Amino acid sequence: MNKRKEGELDIKIVLLGKAYAGKTCLVQRYVNQMFTDTPYQNTIGAAYASARVKVNGKTVILNIWDTAGSERYQSMSRIYYRGAKAAILCFDLTDAESFDKARYWSGELERNEPDCLIYLCGTKKDMVDIEPGSRATPLSQVQSLARDLRSELYETSSTTGEKVNEVFMKIATDFVDNLKNLPIEKPRTDSFRVSHPTDGQRRGWCSSC
């Protein structure tokens, strides 16, 4: 696990989607720069990974939670997306049901984590490139959901690595940019009272503490 050093930033990222939608492969490709075609085992609960990236001179630690897509773990996923600043909604480009599941998770996030930025991610693009007819959901429909969510849309391949790094770098860049754009709070002039205390009294105290 990457430990944050002084001056570094960190962000919690959660991956949500149907089982076998390619979430774990996406993380493995990004973090370890590898893809394996060995038989896939369902994630139980959630798996954690992290990575350090540089953005505009800032070091950002990406704390990535890969949640289980199975229905029986669905309620547990709410634990892992709590407090997330970014969510990658993964769906298999060749599986229409997985796109429906991405819609479901978008609604969950909008209700429970309205400040969480959403990134829509279609996986297994290499399969669509080989067989265009295997695309299960029309691109126009996917783009429409992305517009509704004010979301970035990426079509990725964990097999070839296409667009995988771009997803995570975009998240890190947006996070740093959003921090820069936050308004700077002006100090309250009435927050402090300076007194000349007698013994046993505090010297200067905050009225809001």
Automatic annotation (TrEMBL):
Residues 190-209 are annotated as: Disordered. Keywords: Nucleotide-binding. The keyword tRNA-binding does not apply. Pfam families: Ras. GO terms for molecular function: GTP binding; GTPase activity. It comes from the Eukaryota. Belongs to the small GTPase superfamily. Rab family. This is RAB24.
